Amino acid sequence: MRFRDFERRAREVFDEIPDDFKEGVDGLVVSREAVPHPTLPDVVTLGQCVTENHPSDYGGPETTRSVIELYWGSFQQLARLDDDFDWEDELWETLTHELRHHLESLAGDESLEDADYAADEWFKRRDGLAFDPWYYEHGEPEGRGVYRVEGEAYIEQLWRSAAFARATQVDFRWEGVRYRIPRPAELGDVHFVRLLGPDFEAEEPLELVLVRKRGWWEGLRGAVRRSRPVVLESAAEVERIGEG
Predict the structure, then answer these.
(1) What's the CATH number where 144 sits?
(2) What confidence score (pLDDT) does residue 40 get?
(3) Has residue 17 got a pLDDT over 60?
(4) Does residue 126 lie within any of the structural domains?
(5) Secondary structure class of 209 (helix, strand, coil)
(6) What total of structural domains would you count in the chain?
(7) Which of 18, 29, 61, 142 would give a disulfide with 146, using CB separation of 3.0 to 4.6 Å?
């Protein structure tokens, strides 16, 4: 898509969004730039919400002002890499994503920042870089111990070392079905187990995350993270053992 067409369509989509969702947004800037991610190689930034907070005794659209920026060059770069790149869908998703940043700034809600952090760490893990092994906990929660990041789902289980050593298998539930895998040889501090089998061959990957539960004497998780946790990754064939 040419820059002129992209800018025209971006402003059309922006105008279609109800004004209630744009309160406090001073406008839309469409740039020709391709903006690389500040820390992740081979990742580009499609858009940004630039927000300024002005001192006041109360918060609201009068004190929190934003400008939404879109980077045509970044869209173009992704389109060159993906024959199925959908300009319309990516444009809509990026605009609404950045507007949500603004709305959460108004509300003092950091959930989208958490999601962005999880996505950044997911990219680091994918690219073989050092990453926060608890990144998935910053993703979208979907019930107790279940999280979603970048189209991948994670089931978290906490294990004490002694219980893990005694176990011969690991049971879990997913979408109303009970499953089992052989117990991995090691627990580590965080162990990502990619689940394999007929029920797990969909496009969305699923991982079981086995986390070593530490005693109170070992301090808070922040101290654990500073001591370089042992992070393991493996895969396991899944056995279906029943409903419920």
Answers:
(1) 2.60.260
(2) 57
(3) yes
(4) no
(5) strand
(6) 2
(7) 142
The overall average pLDDT reported for the chain is 82
204-219 pLDDT tens trace: 789 999 998 764 334 3
Per-residue pLDDT of 103-135, as tens digits, reads 766 656 556 677 888 888 899 898 888 888 989
115 located within any domain:
no
**Are the C-beta atoms of 152 and 122 separated by less than 8 Å?**
yes
Structure confidence by residue, pLDDT tens digits, 50-100: 877 655 445 444 567 888 999 999 999 888 887 878 898 889 888 888 887
CATH number at residue 28: 3.30.2010.20
Q: Say which residue the tokens 């499953």 belong to.
A: 179
Find the mean pLDDT for residues 15-25. Answer: 82
CA–CA–CA angle 184, 190, 192 (5° rounding): 60
Q: Containing H/E element for 152?
A: strand 152-159
Distances (CA, A) of 166 to 173, 177, 179, 216, 227: 21, 24, 19, 22, 26
pTM of the model: 0.59
Q: Is the dihedral of CA 40, 51, 57, 103 positive or negative?
A: negative
SS3 177: strand
Q: Find out whether 68 and 19 touch, Cβ atoms under 8 Å.
A: no
> How far is it, in rounded angstroms, from Cα 204 to Cα 235?
15
**Paired tokens of 31:** 């740039």
Which parts of 81-201 are beta strand (E)?
Answer: 140-141, 146-149, 152-159, 169-174, 177-182, 190-196
- Asked if residue 159 and residue 94 are part of one domain, the reply reads no
In a shared domain, residues 154 and 95: no
Please tell me whether residues 156 and 92 are part of one structural domain: no
